[in-house]
Amino acid sequence: MHSSRILVGTYRDRGGYTLVVYHGGALRPLPDYAQEFFRDFNGFAAYFALHRFNSFLDRVLDDAAGEAPVATLDEPLPPVNPSPRLVVGFGRSFEAHAKEMGGGRVAFFLKAPSSLTGHRSFIEVPQWVEKPDYEGEVVIVLGSRLRGASKGEASNAIIGYTAGNDVTARDVQEAGYPWSMAKSIPSFGPVGPLVALIDDARELENICLETLVNGERMQEGCLSELVKPLPELVADATRYFQVSPGDLIFTGTPPGVGHAKKPPRYLKPGDRVEVAVKGVSPLVNTVTRLGSE
């Protein structure tokens, strides 16, 4: 196991997306031979799931440390994986959140990949959405194709984690439409800024998060508080969805969402939302309201 977290992600320039690693306070591209070998983040995820930190990847990371920086975390970034095949969400996976929302069992849903946006990008609320809400979450990244997986297979497939915000149009949700409609609006899926790679899924047991709006803590929780161990929830989800390398799972939100507060506290233009996950720099996004449509 590496002594410190290795953080990877993507950067976009005029030439397209580039795989990067965080080193020396900046994002540095993987060397050209690694870019060609992995091809994209999905390829990197598949390789890492099979080999973890082997000698080849150690050489890639060492060589990347000598590359010129392309960005810092003070700049807007794309989603950590701009092209997952699926984005899965867990609903009511924290018992306290389920209670504040009126109860119910764990639910699994799909979030459109087109909803994803990155660190320091805007959460763009359409004019017709009246109740936009935050849901800070830990997002895990998979490196294997799974269908009807066992708990062990699900555990081995998890290659890392990052921060996410499962922004939700509560008025759409309240109207009885499928959850995916309330959560798949473009920019309603901030994720990033980087993925912390792990050797073993047991490293996630002590990962905690907090959500802040304009500096005020709204949510806090830990993955140890999930209604089931995380690999078991992932395995359950693969009964319904086949997942692939690079796919993302929003693992659920702890209590404290704006909809449950008295009075409700929905997002408004200018709000700065931070989702801070242990081991990853905070995901920061600002809310804006789109013009009349």
Model description:
By secondary structure, the chain is of the alpha+beta class. The chain folds into two domains: 7-64, no CATH class; 87-289, Alpha-Beta Complex (Fumarylacetoacetate hydrolase, domain 2). It has eight helices and 17 strands. Strands 1, 2, 3, 4, 5, 6, 9, 10, 12 and 15 form a ten-stranded mixed β-sheet that branches. Strands 7-17-16-13-14 form a five-stranded mixed β-sheet, with no helix packed on it. Strands 8-11 form a two-stranded antiparallel sheet. Helix 5 packs across helix 8. It is globular.
At CATH's second level, what is the architecture of the largest domain? Alpha-Beta Complex
Terminus-to-terminus distance: 51 Å
Integer average pLDDT: 96
CATH superfamily of the largest domain: Fumarylacetoacetase-like, C-terminal domain
Estimate the strand proportion: 25-35%
CATH class of the largest domain: Alpha Beta
Treating each run of at least 4 consecutive H or I residues as one helix, how many helices? Answer: 8
Write the element-wise H/E pattern from the N-terminal end onward: EEEHHHEHEEEEEHEEHHEEEHEEE
Shape: globular
Helix content: 10-25%
Count of β-strands = 17
